[in-house]
Every structure is written in C-alpha cells, then in structure tokens.
Design a protein that fits this description.
With 303 residues, the protein is an all-alpha fold. Helices cover 57% and strands 0% of the residues. The chain contains 11 helices and no strands.
Length: 303
C-alpha cells in the first residue's frame, strides 16, 4: 500500500526554517519588531480595524484559540519522532497552521476583553487554570496511531466549526475562520489517509489503530459541550453551539473508520470535562512548563 501524500500546507504564514539566536531587543527596536510581527499575523489587518472595547464573547474565542495553541505544541513534539521524515514535516506544518490560528485570534481577543493583552501574554504568561482548551488536545504524545485518531477527530471538528464560523456576525472571526478552513481540510485529509492505511494494513497496524480509536474516545464528548461562553456567542450570532456540530463530525469520522475496516467505538465508561472552565488533566502542567520556560525565565525579552 502506498504512503499517504504529505504535501505542505500552502496556507500557513509561518516558515519552518531555523531562526538564528540573537541578543534580546529592547526599547524602540523591540516596539518596531513587535509591530512588524503583528502585521504578519493571520487576520492582522482586520484586527487593527476592530472596534475596541469589551465584547461578551471574548471567552468563547479564547477557548478556540487555546485549542489550537495547545495542540500545536503537542504536534510539534513529533518532529524527529514520526515514523518517517516526510511525516515530521507534515505534522510540523499542521502545527504551524494551528499556531497561526491562535495568533490570528489572541490579539483580537486582547482588544475586546478590555485587557489589552497580546499574543505572548496569552500564550506565555497564563497559568494552567487560565487556559480554556478541551482535554483532547493536551493529552500526551503516545503511539502514532493515537495521534492519527486524535487528529482525525479534532480536524473533523474544526472543519465543521470553521465552516459555520465563516458566517459569523463578527468580521474578524469570519475572516480567521475562512483562512483556517482551507488548512483544516488538509489536516482532515492527512489524518484520514493514515487511519485508512493503518486500519486496512497489517494485522498489527489494524489492532493498534483500533485501540487508538478506543483510547481517544473519553475525550471526545467535551468537544460538543455547550458551555456558557458558547451559548452566549451563539445567541449573539458570533459563534456556534458545539452540540450542533456533533452529527456532522461523527458522520465524517465514521466514513473514514469504515473505509479503514475499523469499528467506531460506541461509548466510554468515563469522559473528560472542565477544560473550558480551566480544569485540566495532569499532562497540561508539564506541557505549559516546557512551552513557557524561556519566556518566563526572561520576562519582557523579545527576539
């Protein structure tokens, strides 16, 4: 069976080359550097024209941005650990796409939640209880089949989510969603190819892919919980109720699972909950410690 194609996403705004290490920049140079970085963000043009002031759906957008940010960090761990070098690059590109989605939302959130925070403040200066991501994206990197099961579900969810958000009443949200939709369709295609390949491969690959689908199951229901923030955003015609995405997401995943001669698990004896309220699982603490170490060791430094 042929190896799934791993094209680089054409919509990411971030390169994958090595960044030279330089001394921290301060003062006017730092301000100019930060301004240039903001202008390069996805949705930056829309963000600068946003109507300032508090908007009650900032918490909803923060959850979406945190999902993308945390999963980008997890996927980045596959660099040099994937089963082939092409997959290193593919998962790295997916991580960069997700990072771009988070960067497209964080500055806007800071302009509408009356805090004035920037992307570095959200990503590097918040403690665990301040993060609003679901448990699915924070779980530790496990078997490659586990990652493909997680990516399959999360990308199917994001395809339906961003399809709906392109009709958001907030122009910035609609713009970020429109760009993200192109990317997450590729993510879903990539995960689907691998799930089918592993499921319809050898006896061992089939066993491990089926086990991965069962292990990811307890963390799926949380994706579709209608928390207070999402209900408010939907009422304001800015967001979408997660529960309304459930059937379409399951249908997408079920088609892939069937094609891979696998079985979609029926249910779980337990389920994760609380991520949108800042209650996280054990792996979240170590993820943040690694991700935020440099920024917190050198507060205020820019590069």
């Amino acid at each position: 069976m042929s190896t799934p194609a791993t094209p680089a996403s054409t919509d990411t705004d971030t390169g994958t080359g090595t960044t030279p290490v330089t001394e921290p920049v301060t003062g006017a140079s730092a301000s100019a550097s930060e301004s240039a970085q903001r202008e390069s963000l996805p949705g930056a043009a829309e963000n600068t024209g946003a109507d300032p002031g508090a908007k009650p759906y900032a918490a909803y957008l923060l959850g979406l941005a945190d999902d993308a940010m945390v999963y980008a960090q997890r996927l980045g761990e596959w660099m040099t650990n994937a089963p082939q070098i092409e997959e290193d690059m593919a998962l790295g590109n997916i991580a960069l796409d997700l990072l771009g989605q988070a960067r497209g939302l964080y500055p806007y959130i800071g302009s509408i939640d009356d805090t004035g925070r920037g992307e570095d403040d959200y990503a590097m200066q918040r403690d665990e209880r301040e993060w609003r991501n679901v448990h699915l994206v924070e779980q530790e990197r496990g078997d490659f089949a586990d990652e493909m099961a997680r990516l399959l579900w999360f990308s199917a969810y994001q395809v339906e989510l961003h399809t709906a958000l392109t009709g958001s009443g907030d122009d910035v949200v609609a713009g970020v969603a429109g760009k993200a939709l192109k990317e997450v369709r590729y993510h879903l295609d990539h995960a689907s190819l691998w799930v089918v390949r592993l499921g319809d491969g050898t006896e061992e690959s089939h066993r491990r892919m089926q086990a991965a689908l069962e292990r990811v199951l307890p963390h799926l229901a949380e994706l579709f919980d209608d928390d207070e923030a999402s209900v408010l955003a939907a009422d304001l015609e800015v967001g979408v109720l997660p529960s309304t995405l459930h059937d379409a997401v399951v249908a997408r995943v079920a088609r892939v699972v069937e094609q891979g001669t696998l079985t979609l698990p029926d249910g779980s004896r337990w389920r994760s909950r609380g991520g949108r309220a800042g209650i996280h699982s054990r792996p979240m603490g170590s993820l943040l410690a690694e991700m935020q170490h440099i920024a917190r060791s050198h507060p205020g430094a820019t590069w």
